[in-house]
Each structure stands twice: as C-alpha cells, then as structure tokens.
Specification:
With 238 residues, the protein is α+β, with helices and mostly antiparallel strands. The chain has 4 helices and 17 strands.
Length: 238
C-alpha cells in the first residue's frame, strides 16, 4: 500500500451541506463531481495530495470507508481475502469488508504527498490526520490483527486501555487508531483532527454547524451537520 484516503459516505438529503461543512473545516476545495450520477467528489488541499473524498449515498446513516491505494488492486484483494476479508465487488477497484464489517476499497490512484496542516484566524492550526476504527470488544483482537497484517504497520499500545495504534509510516496522510467499544454492531470508523488549540477549533466547528457530543480530557467528540461523529484532539497537527 502506498497511500490511504477516507471517504465520507453521506445520504443525499444531507450531502450538500456536508460538502460545505467539511470544505470549511479543512480548507480544502470541492472538486468537480464525477461518477454516473455525479455522486463522488474530492476535497482538494491547496498543497499536497488529497486524502479526503465524499460520496452521496442513498440510504443508511452517514459513515466512513477507507480507500487503500495499491499498485495491483486484484492482488491486494486476494491477499485480504486470505487474511479474513470479504470481497463485495470488482469494478476496476475492489470493494471489500473487513472481518468485523468495515467497508474498504483497493484502488490504484497514484498519490504520495501529504497535505500540511491548515492555519486559521486566531492562530489555531488543525488537520484531519487520523482514522479511528471503533471495534466491538468481543472481536477487537481479530479485527486489530487483520488491519495490522493487511497494512503491515506495527501495532502499539496506548496510555488509554481502550486504544491501540497502528504506527503510521512516514509519508502517509492518515494514522490508524483502534478503539474498543461496548456495543455489538459492525466495526465503524470516524475521523480525528489534530489541533494546536482544541478550544478554538471547537468554537470554529460549532459556528460551521457542528454540535458537541461529549468532552474528554484530551479530545472532544462532535457531530457534523449530517450527524456523522468525529473528534477534535490535542495531538500536535505538526
């Protein structure tokens, strides 16, 4: 794998305001629409390659899926199946599900240069630079092992018992955090932003249409205008 990007899959009624929100949150411009029904777009950073994309979907709640950029999607998909993944479809890109039910795709789009953090009025700096996989505790070990083997990124513990981390190689736009959660549903994902000033970023996001769900000691959980959860964290955006 040479790159990872995240797709925000948003139902049609909330799609346009979600595009406006995430463009403002990141400072990335929406690309021209593409797809048979113009359902796809990319959030394009001013510098570097993109790592955030959006898709208008027809049903269900808003959600995140991952694109893994590889030289040979077919070969990568076969390896993922051998590790316990499930192939859903092959459309030139291969749609997969992890053992715990998280959708991801193997694609071949060439990208390589992470975007820098964005600076905002008032002096705060932030960037969407982490995907957190929310994994039911009963299947955590197997799902964590799948992603570690698939990505070949080292697994590292955390100061918080519910978290483990896959160590991001240099040159990747995203890190991967693994979180044990108490419910029994499928694996889900949410985005995390690193912030120089979480307080300033919370206020900026609220003004753009987000709402606070809960505040923790080192992160704040919010929902975007489509009720997609995400977090602002105290991790350094640099």
């Amino acid at each position: 794998m040479f790159w990872m990007s995240a797709f925000l899959d948003v139902p049609a009624p909330d799609f346009e305001r979600s595009v406006t929100f995430w463009s403002a949150v990141t400072g990335y411009a929406p690309s021209a629409r593409r797809g048979a029904e113009e359902e796809f777009l990319t959030l394009v950073p001013p510098v570097g390659d993109d790592h955030l994309r959006m898709q208008r979907v027809g049903d269900g709640p808003p959600r995140i899926h991952l694109d893994l950029h590889v030289d040979q999607p077919r070969t990568a998909a076969d390896r993922a199946v051998a590790l316990g993944g499930v192939e859903i479809s092959n459309r030139g890109y291969v749609v997969m599900r992890s053992p715990g039910g998280l959708t991801f795709c193997f694609v071949s789009h060439p990208v390589s240069q992470p975007a820098p953090p964005a600076s905002w009025a008032g002096g705060s700096v932030s960037i969407v630079d982490q995907v957190c996989l929310d994994i039911p505790a009963a299947i955590f070990d197997g799902e964590a092992a799948f992603w570690q083997e698939l990505l070949q990124w080292p697994l590292k513990g955390s100061a918080y018992a519910e978290f483990e981390r896959l160590v991001r190689p240099d040159g990747q736009a995203f890190g991967i955090l693994l979180q044990r959660v108490g419910d029994d549903g499928p694996v889900r994902a949410h985005l995390d932003l690193a912030c120089s000033s979480r307080e300033s970023e919370v206020q900026r996001h609220l003004a753009l249409g987000a709402r606070v769900v809960v505040t923790r000691d080192r992160w704040t959980v919010l929902e975007d205008p489509a009720a997609l959860p995400y977090c602002l964290t105290d991790r350094s955006p640099q």
